[in-house]
Design goal:
Layout lengths: L6 H19 L9 H24 L4 H30 L2 H15 L3 H6 L17 H24 L4 H22 L1 H6 L1 H20 L6 H21 L12 H13 L5 H6 L2 H8 L1 H17 L6 H27 L6 H24 L9 H6 L10 H12 L12 E6 L1 H12 L7 E6 L12 H7 L5 H5 L7 H9 L2 E5 L4 H4 L2 H10 L5 E4 L9 H5 L3 H6 L1 E3 L2 H11 L6 E2 L1 H6 L4 E3 L17 H11 L3 H11 L4
Parallel strand pairs: 1-2, 1-3, 3-4, 4-6
Antiparallel strand pairs: 5-7
């Protein structure tokens, strides 16, 4: 005995997958689109429980049959996507990214990618957009649930059948409380892991049991309004939730209960059932699994290749995802679900071969640190293969700065005292001075102001509240700025002050005031470090070049950065050290590598160790810098 087909469930799937896809394409348009994943969880919990209860009732349930059906549905399209991305990873990904890609693929093969991504950047972090298999965290959660759930259901069905609904509700409430607690203190764990996501699937389980028990405790007239309430609750969450919403948490009950209302109470004649059962939504729902699998790698590789970034480009990517999903549904999903088309023996053979091929490639990628024998020695030098001495690129930027300079108090020694103020670009400049050997006889202190908090005077708090993102307000309110007494005192104690930031148009408007504040507090020796921006190369571009062409290669930086640099240079009263001019002259075209063939910047803004050495050598030949350094230190360069 099977379960009856409900087209409105496919319509609900369509809303869920469309929300996710548009959120990933246009995160500022549909800020709560990520809720689509939660809706999927409820649907999956409901359908799988309905199937298991139906088979347990007529005595046809078997664990082997259950897991074979899961394998037929989940693995063929997943393996197809994995295999399709291998050539793109080979051509487009730099070694570190390729290794991380391979780890994510292997962890997805074993349905544990949520553990891997738990150890990585936040789901909301910008680098996460470049990880083609980030979206498989939800698939891993779902499959982990299915490894456990049939056994739990069998126990509940056999021994607690009379009280099964009560037990399920108690378990759900316990998991909601756990999630609410962890959402405050362990947000990444709450986002990625089964204990704090399982209750969403469990809600679907409860709905299925309610249906089997035919439990109707509510007034029949009230019941008719619940599907509409459910749709409104879901749409409210999709439209008004955003990355600042504590999720998952008790707030997530809004879309989860909304989804449950639709699934349980959308009966014949219900307007919501009719709406969700229209052919267009049902069609999208049928290809929803493939669309979910295909869209994220397509978006990620387009970002890696710096293509299709316009609004039109994003719609082209969505269309491409739809086309691939349709092909995937008719050529892969439907045939593999049908025992008559793909026998069990054929299924096992094809899945085994695919698994081994995917695992073998990615094992080699991991073992070779993402190089996969793609590069010659000079190319590895270009990527600063030796970075293990200093940790990752990002760690290099901040480690020694944090250890030796950040928030350090000046002593009473007679050494010249230098204060550096700014964001991660000031960390960069600290490394330039350090690599150049200029800090041996200097006492240095650094004051950090994050880029997102805007480096402008403290008395502009009313403006700051308008230009700083809402998610950053709390942390940015704690920042000590120029104009604050404690920082003014430190400026007064310094012999020289350097200010380095990733300046944007907004900050440049206030840069003269920043200089005035510093000088009013007694720092006669002051210099502002100009904005820098660098071109980057994909491994695909790199593979087309030889070492001589790399050394001579110049590419255009982004126009926005170039315009900001131009604005700063036009401010006559500004004591500016033009880093861009040192490296690129007045041109928008800048070198990619040092003369020795090493990468100058790993991300287009921050310096590698070799890049810091290169910039330091240029500074030592720059008359303005040499005069500045001599003016407060009396040290010969």
């Amino acid at each position: 005995m099977g379960i009856r087909y409900r087209p409105e469930i496919d319509g609900l799937r369509a809303i869920a997958v469309t929300s996710v896809v548009f959120f990933h394409a246009f995160p500022n348009w549909l800020t709560g689109g990520f809720i689509g994943v939660d809706i999927f969880f409820v649907i999956s919990g409901y359908l799988i429980t309905s199937i298991i209860l139906s088979e347990m009732t007529d005595g046809s349930f078997s664990f082997l049959g259950f897991y074979e059906r899961r394998a037929r549905r989940i693995l063929p399209p997943l393996f197809a996507v994995m295999i399709s991305t291998i050539p793109l990873a080979w051509m487009m990904m730099l070694p570190k990214a390729a290794k991380e890609y391979s780890i994510s693929v292997v962890s997805s093969l074993f349905f544990s990618s949520n553990f891997w991504f738990l150890s990585e950047d936040s789901y909301w972090a910008e680098p996460s957009q470049l990880k083609p298999f980030l979206h498989t965290w939800s698939l891993s959660v779902e499959e982990q649930f299915y490894f456990i759930f049939p056994f739990l259901m069998l126990i509940l069905f056999k021994f607690l059948s009379a009280n099964i609904l009560r037990v399920l509700i108690y378990v759900a409430l316990l998991l909601v409380v756990l999630t609410e607690f962890l959402s405050h203190s362990h947000t990444k764990f709450a986002f990625y892991m089964l204990p704090t996501r399982g209750w969403e699937l469990w809600t679907g389980v409860i709905v299925a049991v309610l249906e089997v028990k035919n439990y109707q405790p509510l007034n029949r007239y009230l019941i008719k309004t619940l599907p509409l309430c459910g749709l409104l609750m879901m749409m409210f969450s999709i439209v008004f939730f955003d990355e600042t919403t504590r999720h998952p948490s008790i707030i997530t009950l809004i879309p989860i209960i909304g989804s449950a209302f639709i699934i349980r109470y959308s009966v014949e004649g219900c307007i919501i059932k009719k709406l969700l059962s229209n052919k267009f939504l049902v069609g999208i729902g049928l290809i929803s699994y493939g669309l979910y699998l295909w869209h994220y790698p397509i978006f990620a590789f387009s970002l890696i290749g710096d293509s299709f970034s316009s609004i039109l480009g994003k719609f082209i990517l969505i269309l491409g995802s739809l086309i691939l999903s349709i092909f995937s549904f008719y050529l892969i999903e439907r045939p593999f679900r049908n025992n008559a088309v793909v026998s069990k023996k054929t299924l096992i053979s094809l899945l085994s071969f695919s698994f081994i091929a995917i695992f073998a490639f990615n094992f080699v990628s991991i073992a070779t640190d993402g190089e996969i024998w793609r590069y010659e020695k000079w190319q590895l030098n270009f990527f600063e293969k030796d970075r293990g001495k200093n940790g990752t690129f990002a760690n290099y930027v901040e480690t020694k700065y944090n250890l030796n300079a950040k928030d350090k108090a000046f002593s009473s020694s007679s050494k010249p005292k230098l204060l550096i103020i700014g964001d991660s670009f000031s960390q960069d400049f600290y490394n330039v001075l350090l690599e150049s050997g200029l800090l041996k006889d200097i006492e240095i202190s650094a004051h950090y102001i994050p880029t997102n908090c805007k480096n402008i005077p403290s008395y502009y708090s009313h403006i700051l509240s308008e230009v700083i993102a809402s998610k950053d307000q709390t942390s940015c309110n704690k920042i000590i700025r120029l104009g604050s007494a404690s920082l003014n005192n430190k400026i007064a104690a310094a012999d020289a002050v350097m200010v380095a930031s990733n300046w944007d148009d907004f900050a440049v408007d206030y840069i003269v005031e920043l200089q005035d504040i510093i000088q009013q507090n007694g720092a006669g020796n002051t210099v502002f470090i100009g904005k820098k921006s660098f071109p980057t190369l994909t491994s695909y571009e790199l593979s087309k070049l030889n070492i001589d062409s790399i050394r001579n290669l110049k590419k255009a930086i982004d126009v926005e950065s170039f315009n900001v640099i131009g604005r700063m240079k036009k401010i006559e009263s500004l004591k500016l050290l033009d880093i861009h001019g040192l490296i690129c002259g007045d041109s928008i075209y800048c070198p990619v590598s040092t003369p020795e063939g090493y990468l100058i910047s790993y991300d287009g803004g921050h310096l590698t160790r070799e890049g810091a050495v290169y910039v330091g050598n240029l500074l030592l030949k720059n008359e303005r810098f040499v005069n500045f350094w001599h003016s407060f230190s009396n040290l010969k360069l």
